[in-house]
UniProtKB/TrEMBL annotation:
Zn(2+) 1 binds at residues 87, 89, 189, 306. This is Amidohydrolase/deacetylase family metallohydrolase. The modification N6-carboxylysine is found at residue 189. It comes from the Bacteria. Zn(2+) 2 binds at residues 189, 244. Residues 296-402 form the Amidohydrolase-related domain. GO terms for molecular function: deacetylase activity; hydrolase activity, acting on carbon-nitrogen (but not peptide) bonds; metal ion binding. SUPFAM superfamilies: Composite domain of metallo-dependent hydrolases (SSF51338), Metallo-dependent hydrolases (SSF51556). It comes from Flagellimonas olearia. Residues 1-24 form the signal peptide. The keyword Lipid metabolism does not apply. Keywords: Hydrolase, Metal-binding, Signal, Zinc.
């Protein structure tokens, strides 16, 4: 009888011990010892972050490692919200003569996002209202990356050439109706139009007004050049986005004049609420524009890649490379993170993203800042040297590790 009682007592103790162990591991993941940079919440200091069921569960100065089923030691690293790339082209496909709109000029998002800390990419007008459903079915719904989009004012999207010059296919009503139908659509895009007229801009803004979303403008260029002062001060609304802010092309007006001075109306436009986006790309970022702009206090509101086949292996490379360029142009680390996370989230009215508040979606980037001698290249194949650069160590999307450069989230194998 005593043996049976002892047996039951031991079983009860074992159950109690296991129960307490399970209770102790109340979080799926704990990130410890990193410097948390969260612009929305004004945090830039050492903080631990706990994640449970895909959401941020706790943010505090010391969370016990015993509470996490998995623990990542982020010592000497930055812990930031997942990066938001405000301008990419990811409507990839095999349709003939379609370029970025279901053709070969766009790229598969998952191949390029997570490895640079990007958890959300916003496609910049690859699709129009005529083919957005194909984009959604074939790419958006099939990608692990969160893919949002600006809808092109051209109904058939960014197919290139004369197709994008068709003013008759720029339908504000159909564009606005489509934007209103899909939660993934966060704005309207105009790009590549090369005529000396304002009709395309006005129709894009009309669609944006009808749908209550921002418009992103990529001036395609014209002869003579259209005035960017007129664009900023008369045509666009506060909250609308001018991408390729530091481009130096002969077909569109530059923000820095031939004497190296930022034009005064550019500062006024930024104060007015025009959003200046980097949109680096394969041909739209020059140090001759960016460096004097930074020196004179004209900073970008958001960093983005303009990812496509013409930029991915050139001077652009990826999101962290562009962020590193601004870091080496003396932009403070916290500011670089802010314009790559919380700022773009606000511009596209997706304030559920870009921060690590308790209850928020657990999209997280763990970054290191490497020291050394590095070369950074612009789209004119000109080089700027720097002594530091961002490197993505780990990316989490919805609380799950989706990229881990050096195995920070893994256990060592049993020798």
């Amino acid at each position: 009888m005593k043996i049976h009682k002892l047996k039951y007592a031991l079983i009860a103790l074992a159950v109690l011990f296991c129960s307490k162990a399970v209770q102790a591991q109340e979080y799926d993941l704990v990130i410890k010892n990193g410097t948390l940079i969260d612009a929305k919440n004004g945090i830039n200091k050492k903080m631990d972050v706990a994640i449970s069921e895909g959401k941020i569960a706790e943010v505090s100065s010391n969370i016990s490692a015993k509470k996490g089923k998995k623990v990542i030691d982020a010592q000497d690293k930055l812990v930031t919200p997942g990066l938001i790339d405000l301008h990419g082209h990811v409507f990839f496909g095999t349709e003939e003569n379609s370029m970025y709109s279901g053709g070969s000029h766009s790229v598969a998002p998952d191949n390029f996002t997570f490895r640079s800390g990007v958890t959300t990419v916003v496609d910049a007008g690859s699709a129009g209202w005529r083919n957005f459903q194909v984009f959604k079915k074939n790419v958006i719904d099939e990608s692990k990356t969160r893919v949002l989009a600006f809808l092109n004012i051209v109904g058939s999207g960014m197919k290139g050439g004369v197709i994008e010059q068709n003013v008759n296919d720029m339908d504000p009503k159909m564009t606005a109706l489509t934007v209103g139908r899909y939660k993934e659509l966060v704005g309207v895009k105009l790009a590549h139009y090369s005529g000396f007229e304002w009709t395309p801009t006005e129709r894009a803004v009309e669609a944006g007004t009808m749908a209550d979303v921002p418009v992103m403008i990529d001036f395609g260029g014209s002869r003579p050049m259209l005035s960017i002062e007129t664009l900023f001060m008369e045509k666009l609304r506060p909250g609308d986005i001018f991408t390729h802010a530091y481009a130096s092309l002969g077909s569109r007006e530059r923000v820095v004049d031939d004497q190296g001075k930022v034009k005064p109306f550019v500062f006024e436009a930024q104060k007015r609420g025009i959003v200046f986006d980097v949109g680096h790309g394969g041909g739209s970022f020059a140090f001759s524009q960016a460096v004097p702009s930074m020196q004179q206090g004209f900073k970008p509101n958001s960093i983005s890649t303009d990812l496509h086949i013409g930029s991915m292996n050139g001077g652009m490379k990826d999101m962290t490379n562009i962020m590193s360029k601004f870091l080496n142009m003396d932009m403070p680390v916290a500011e670089v993170i802010a314009i790559s996370t919380w700022n773009p989230a606000q511009y596209i009215k997706r304030t559920d993203l870009g921060h690590l508040s308790v209850g928020a979606i657990a999209d997280v980037a763990i970054l290191s800042i490497e020291k050394g001698e590095f070369g950074f290249v612009d789209t004119k194949n000109e080089k700027m040297m720097g002594d530091q650069k961002f490197q993505c160590e780990v990316t989490l999307k919805d609380g799950r590790v989706v990229y881990d450069l050096n195995g920070l989230s893994s256990k060592e194998w049993d020798k």
